[in-house]
Design brief:
Elements lengths: L1 H24 L8 H19 L5 H33 L8 H4 L5 E5 L4 E6 H4 L9 H14 L6 E7 L6 H21 L6 E5 L12 H7 L1 E7 L11
Parallel strand pairs: 3-4
Antiparallel strand pairs: 1-2, 2-5, 3-5
Helix pairs in contact: 1-2, 2-3, 3-6
Length: 238
């Protein structure tokens, strides 16, 4: 039993490592491959589980495990696709494959990755200068997101604040944290029952270089991440 457990741990660790390398080395995946990616990861995990559940009939168990894993992974991919499109429709925009490029012309950008959907709001439509209090326009946009989230009560929500590089890191950290927390509170107050995390990144994660007023405006933003499960949540400030 000890040997089987060790083999299972190593197999799953290898799968997770492969998934991590793909996320780090590649850009946002092609929209058409979202569900396929979920199926691939699910199949690998399912096959590992099936192969290790018994010393006998390993081939049969692996095939069954792969089928179950593929179904689960495909369901996650499809759910993210569907959720991203519903969010984009509610905001009267499209799902984008290039956030930095889309942010040049749009105040709201919806993107999707293997593990989450992300909605990016430019700060100029969310807050007054140096303020952490959401504007009336921000409430209007957040309310549209609330209507979508009510259909996905198990989705994990993470709100993240970002600033440009003007001023000290600590000042901007506090401002980004307050903005993220206030947006999270607004979501709760508007009826969202999902688990919600909030944090600020100061200016540690710019989308584009802070070398012009236009680029600084892109970097001043609030992001809302939608994860299918708790284990998919990542620290986006690292």
């Amino acid at each position: 039993m000890r040997t089987v457990f060790r083999s299972f741990t190593l197999s799953v660790a290898a799968i997770m490592l492969l998934g991590g390398c793909a996320a780090k080395n590649g850009a946002a995946p092609n929209d058409a491959n979202k569900t396929k990616s979920g199926i691939l990861i699910g199949t690998l995990v399912g096959a590992a589980l099936g192969a290790l559940t018994s010393k006998h009939h390993k081939g049969k168990n692996a095939a069954i495990g792969a089928a179950v894993g593929a179904a689960a992974g495909g369901a996650i991919g499809y759910s993210l696709d569907k959720q991203a499109q519903e969010v984009a429709d509610s905001m009267q925009t499209e799902v984008s494959g290039n956030e930095a490029e889309a942010a040049k012309t749009s105040d709201i950008v919806v993107t999707k990755q293997d593990n989450y959907v992300k909605i990016t709001f430019k700060s100029r439509m969310m807050f007054a200068t140096d303020s952490a209090q959401p504007t009336a326009e921000a409430r209007e946009k957040i309310l549209k997101l609330v209507d979508v989230l009510k259909n996905y009560p198990d989705t994990i929500v993470q709100v993240v604040g970002h600033t440009d590089s003007r001023g000290s890191y600590d000042y901007n950290l506090k401002l980004s944290q307050k903005r993220a927390f206030n947006v999270a509170e607004m979501l709760k107050n508007l009826g969202v029952t999902n688990r919600i995390y909030a944090r600020g990144c100061s200016f540690s994660k710019p989308l584009v270089p802070n070398d012009s007023p236009e680029n600084m405006a892109i970097n001043r933003r609030v992001e809302i991440y939608l994860y299918p499960s708790e284990d998919r949540v990542v620290d986006v400030c690292i």
